[in-house]
Write a structure and sequence with these properties.
With 277 residues, this protein is mainly α. The chain has helices at residues 13-27, 32-48, 92-98, 124-127, 160-169, 174-200, 208-224, 235-243, 245-248, 257-275; strands at residues 66-70, 87-91, 145-147, 153-155. Helices cover 47% and strands 6% of the residues.
């Protein structure tokens, strides 16, 4: 999922004016204001999300056109149709799969009308609902969803929210799994290639600098995969690949343990000198 920290208290000015003018018509059942609202905020959301889906992180276009997604669906929360903190960017497929789904741990806690309390998604009033769908703008998805070195995705530590989100948005659909595999496989291929180079010139490696020089370009590419400003990658997967380097890459390397040691050592040097210092 795409971790985005949107300022809920600073909606686009055009949205504020539009909502003030058309809210009554929308609450009376007129869907035209909702359609117009989406057109007004779409570009703002595409900028925030770097044109990537909030749920699956795919680049908008590879899985269809962008959609303005209502985290709490209009069918159940019509009064949140123009609430900035309830609007996310989604790809066509995740938006279609998610549809009007919004399960709660305890149904009787569902908020069914605006009331006088805050409508912000992070207000105690709304958080107390106990949603089972992860909100990319509030939840740390890595606490609930995890990737395996084979590219598969599953809930972490039995997380009900993780499992529910995967099932509702179909984050384990084949096309996504193939993209996860491709991201892992690209780095693994480079590491294997550099490992062969290290083995070939093993006797010439005299210092840590010599060893790091062989792998540094690949490790920089790996580190770039966890950069939230990189709009071309799956950053949650990229972060896990970086943090779980041993499982994703070292254990997959051919050859003897001495060569695996060199890769571990090179990555340790890279982290110390560029990221963990």
């Amino acid at each position: 999922m795409r971790s985005i920290k949107k300022d809920f208290l600073s909606p686009p000015p055009g949205l504020v004016k539009f909502a003030a003018k058309h809210m009554d018509k929308m609450l009376d059942g007129d869907d035209n204001p909702i359609k117009s609202c989406k057109s007004k905020v779409r570009k703002h959301l595409e900028t925030h999300y770097l044109k990537r889906c909030a749920y699956c992180e795919s680049t908008i276009g590879t899985t269809g056109f962008s959609r303005v997604d209502h985290f709490r669906p209009i069918a159940k929360y019509r009064w949140l149709a123009m609430e900035w903190s309830n609007l996310l960017l989604s790809c066509e497929k995740c938006n279609e799969y998610k549809s009007d789904s919004f399960p709660l741990r305890v149904e009787k806690k569902r908020v069914i009308n605006p009331g006088k309390e805050s409508h912000l998604a992070d207000s105690p009033h709304m958080m107390d609902e106990g949603a089972l769908l992860l909100n990319p703008e509030l939840d740390d998805a890595s606490e609930h969803i995890t990737f395996s070195p084979d590219g598969s995705i599953k809930e972490r530590n039995g997380s009900e929210k993780g499992r529910t989100t995967i099932d509702i948005c179909k984050l384990d659909r084949d096309e996504l799994t193939e993209r996860y595999k491709k991201q892992i496989g690209g780095i693994l291929y480079d590491i294997k290639d550099k490992t062969i180079i290290a083995a070939t010139f093993y006797t010439a490696i005299k210092t840590d600098e010599d060893l790091l020089l062989i792998f540094i370009g690949t490790f920089q590419a790996l580190a770039g995969l966890k950069n939230p400003g990189n709009k071309y990658v799956y950053t949650q997967l990229g972060t896990q690949m970086y943090e779980e380097f041993e499982d994703f890459f070292v254990r997959k390397l051919p050859g003897n343990e001495d060569m695996r040691f060199l890769v571990r050592r090179a990555f340790e040097l890279f982290r110390q000198r560029y990221f963990d210092s």
